[in-house]
Amino acid sequence: MKVTDILRVKGNTLYTVPPDQLLADAARTMAELDIGSLVVMGHGDLLGMLTFREVIKAVVANGGRFGERLVRSVMDDAPLTCTPATEIDEVRRMMLQTHARYMPVMDKRELMGVISFYDVAKTVVDAQDFENRMLKAYIRDWPAEGTPLPSADGA
Predict the structure, then answer these.
(1) In whole angstroms, what is the distance from residue 98 CA to residue 113 CA?
(2) Average pLDDT along the chain
(3) Which of 40, 57, 107, 132 fits as disulfide partner to 48, beta carbons 3.0 to 4.6 Å?
């Protein structure tokens, strides 16, 4: 399974923010939309990621206030990315190693979407559930003990 499979189900709605936006406004947007990240874009290019992790760190470091801080001052300016063709198992490994909760999906320089650790986990669980149902159906159709198995020649 590949990242493109997640994007196909999830859709490609993107929430972006310019680097010079006030952090307080970006946090308000995240709260209103009930999202955990914003992609920081400038002149059509991915500049970074702003997640609730960076927001919380910045607010705590500033005595519980946003102040006049800009998104660019707290964003992750080197976010981990993947492509639509990246295998889900590879994405899961990368996210676990780096503790990343959100990952922009890039096709060359074009932003295709953002996947979350939740999206990856849900995809893995859904695939396992499907496999389990198929195995149970197969086992249910297993011939009863003592029933002769069909031979290779059909007799």
Answers:
(1) 19
(2) 88
(3) 40
